[in-house]
Amino acid sequence: PGETLRRTLDDSEAMVFILGGAGTARLGDLTEQLREGISLTLFQGEPLDLEAAADQGLDLFIAEINVDQVD
């Protein structure tokens, strides 16, 4: 409860599935409330910024896929 997960998906893309609890996702200037049943798709270069609710915590599953860089 109350913890934050922050990182940038430099070499990957991800899908985040909220399995339970509550929290907040920050996507640039957009803030979205998280609850069970919500999923997020994050593309390469986007920030992953999730905060669990202080009173409930956040139960989630992240599926991350590495993206090869093509020169």
Helices and strands, in order, run as EEEEEE
Structural class: mainly beta
Report helical residue fraction: under 10%
| Radius of gyration based on Cα positions | 13 Å
Q: Give the DSSP E fraction (strand runs of 2 or more residues).
A: over 45%
How many helices? The count is 0
Tally of strands: 6
Biggest sheet overview: 6 strands, antiparallel
Mean pLDDT: 92
As residue ranges, the low-confidence spans are none
Q: Give the end-to-end Cα distance, rounded to a whole number of Å.
A: 42 Å
Shape: elongated
Explained architecture:
It is a single chain. This protein is mainly β and 71 residues long. The protein has no helices and 6 strands. It has strands at residues 4-8, 12-27, 30-35, 39-42, 47-52, 58-66. Strands 1, 2, 3, 4, 5 and 6 form a 6-stranded antiparallel beta sheet that branches. The N and C termini lie far apart (42 Å). The mean pLDDT is 92.
Summed up, what is this model?
With 71 residues, the chain is an all-beta fold. The protein has strands at 4-8, 12-27, 30-35, 39-42, 47-52, 58-66. The protein is built from no helices and six strands.
Write the layout of secondary structure elements.
Layout (H helix, E strand, L loop, with lengths): L3 E5 L3 E16 L2 E6 L3 E4 L4 E6 L5 E9 L5
Antiparallel strand pairs: 1-5, 2-3, 2-4, 2-5, 2-6
